[in-house]
């Protein structure tokens, strides 16, 4: 009962009203909603693209400075604290609890999305540059958002030992007493809304692929209804795990990682395209290394930057209100340098392997003439349908589809386990580090997270609409993120 008295009801009720209000509007007025979303996104793309680009560079450079300056030697905890998790367990949790099932969807389909872009076509080697930009959008800048905030949150939890586990609390070095007032409340509301937008985007983009996969395996043709059922299944799994606690999250992460690696190994070893995949991967990594600075600062790109780079930075930003907090919470006893460098190794290793294997596999099918994936997209098939057709070119493809489905369900569950735990902590006025949120509040957020994705699926929102939700939510979030980093540097000078 004491915990319920500590709940900050304004941070619970206001998001509920907004989520159900938005869901109603999307279902009741889909065309008008689309026009409004398109208008806001167009304004942000045309007027503020430079801001998103500069923020990405700021975070990437900040991680390098934090790791290799005196700040990097700061231990996240007391001098006697030791790491709670082994390097392997920590790394697996870093990846599976931050990468949702959309990594599989994009790894299979993103090269197809880029192949029709004029900016990519003008470079000549379309396949090579499509994979290169995938690695860029899931690469160092993207992970810098997570890692820089992760050390800031861990510093707040284990060095300064702030009493509140909230997004706003990380702004205290700048806001001071105003953190306890309206400013702090507004920041926490921004965080909750951003996270709801992030979960909606993730579910809405990649759930059709999971539905198509399960549909093929069990000969079910009602994809939309199946998507809604699968959302409920995923919510049930992560609800159970989040209620049990961190032990369940750790074990689920390990199981999920096994299925994910199993999928990659099956494609790599049995697709007959081993040499093509390795060659394409080496070429793309080399291309990214040589052109990284130019890619990170490009704005004039026939709208490619606005359509994709701005979207991806926004997508990672809206997830930054939860996943870095989770990374920070499992990093006690490590140094800042260790968290950043090991985080890059595990994060980039997992994302690069996924894209190199799955994207190169799809491209090999296109190049060898086994399937004309680009033509299927032109003919009106959606990306999930084409991804399934690509998988069906594998020997004993049902094994691959089972691995894909299990990996996606596992990745969904582990990510939502971690964010449900984090957002539940945000709901309290005050919660000690060693305390966990009540099971009821965790269950409440688990259910709320599925409302907006269902509305987007029911209203048949297109990819642009779904992306727009993330881009709009990212703008206020990135401002708060900058405040957190600046506050961290100000505070850490006392311990460096």
Automatic annotation (TrEMBL):
Any idea where this protein resides?
Answer: Cell membrane
Keyword Endoplasmic reticulum belongs to the record: no
Instruction: Give one Pfam family.
Output: BCCT
The record's principal subcellular location, in a coarse class, is membrane
Q: Which UniProt keywords apply?
A: Cell membrane, Membrane, Transmembrane, Transmembrane helix, Transport
Q: Which residues span the membrane?
A: 7-26, 46-68, 88-108, 135-158, 186-206, 226-245, 257-278, 310-331, 343-363, 399-423, 444-463, 469-489
Q: Tell me its family.
A: Belongs to the BCCT transporter (TC 2.A.15) family.
**Name of this protein:** BCCT family transporter
The membrane topology noted for this protein in its Swiss-Prot or TrEMBL record is: Multi-pass membrane protein
